[in-house]
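Onboarding guide, step 5: your first structure request.
Type a short instruction followed by the sequence, for example:

Predict the 3D structure of this protein.
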Amino acid sequence: MKITPALAERSIKLWRKWNQEFGIELYHEVGVMFVRQREMKPGDFEYESFKLLRTARTQDRAHELSRNCGNDFQHGIRNFIRDGVLEFEAGYAESGRVVATLIERAKSAWASNCAKESDFSRLRRKRRSRERHRAR
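The system replies with structure tokens like these:
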């Protein structure tokens, strides 16, 4: 599956929704920065990532470091980092915590369905008992 900016944007919205719905932080929106010691050029991972992030939907989120950072960056760290990309909404999910949370949700839904099912089972047993009693 090819991950596109639109898919990533949709996923981030869903992660935020789950964070609220479950009341715990499953997705940590910490941002990501890719840096280079030389200027980005077509074909470089950072350049292609920046180009991909600059689509109409994500245009305001991706920042090219060499053109958008202040003087401190340009004069201080510039000797080590020449260029790069900063994406503020990127993050990570704790896979183990996500799986455990979803298992608990499934168990809860299953238990709820079992309770409903057992009510139906009791009704069926009563009906069968009455039918057998009438047949005698």
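Each response can be followed by summary notes, for example: The longest strand covers residues 32-36.
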